[in-house]
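Notes for week 9. Today we move from apo structures to complexes. The key idea is that a small molecule is not decoration. When we ask for a structure prediction with zinc ion present, the ligand SMILES becomes part of the input, just like the chain. The input block below holds both the sequence and the ligand string. Read it once before you look at the output, and try to guess where the molecule might sit.
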Amino acid sequence: MSIPVVVTHYDCRRHRPGIGHPERPERLSAVLNHLPSGIPLLTSEPASAEDLAYAHQKQYIDSIRDLSAAGVVTYTDPDTVLSPGTWRAALGAVGAMRWAVENVVSGQTQRVFCAVRPPGHHAEWANTKGFCFFNTIAIGARMLQRRYGVRRIAIIDWDAHHGNGTQNTFYDDAGVLYVSLHQYPLFPGTGRRSERGKDAGAGYNLNIPLAPGSTDHDACQAFRDEAEPAIAAYRPEIIMVSAGFDGHVDERLAGWMMTASGYAYMTRRVVALADRYSDGRVISLLEGGYHLPSLISCVNEHLRELRGRKPGNATLANEH
Ligand SMILES: [Zn+2]
């Protein structure tokens, strides 16, 4: 058993896309106000602009900072709205990731869940996309590589939307195995099986597209049959999770029919893989999830599984 730490930054609430936008501050409040008992919640320092540069162009970073400073509320792409607090929120989110990286590498903690927003996995090198400004998990993986010399990182992305930004960041990099389960077809339109990486990264990008209507059984079977063997063969030194929960049956931005039990199962398997190959080390990051009651229950199950269940208590109804 290893107690996972939840890390956040209160500036993450300052990004305000406006009334009616699904990616709203209340998401984070809901998660933080309903954490399972006994799991510590910490607040990190904010990141720096230099941290963002691990996965983004400098001019782009400056443009987001300057737009936020200008005090405007403006669309930066058809889905993404920048507000005066967006810059501070992004630095808070990446600051939580930096805390996770530093403390997991040092051995201070084994498992961290970064409860932050805005999400990140659609953000590209020099543009926003799909509610995302900066790719927090990609920045974290680059920190692990370049500051700490970690040579094999597995990123598992089970948000219902494909993580185009993460895939592109590491598409030619054998040092990151990117494994995505996502609904296809769906925004952003990437994530075909044929996208397998290029050059040195060829074979280190695994897309597992699942049809609309997919259930816990479908996702868990795909995870067990395809994701697990790939991760086991790769033997990652650390496992990162882009933990989006918008495939829940009650969510409206995707068409999967998953429940919290499915996310619990996948988390349990991640923990088993990490215990076997990665000294138990897991850094998880909140990505999507917009229906607050289901988001709360999914995050709760995720954290309980990161903590580890007692032997004999480990079988859910959907265990294969
Ligand atoms: Zn999503």
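The longest helix spans residues 86-105.
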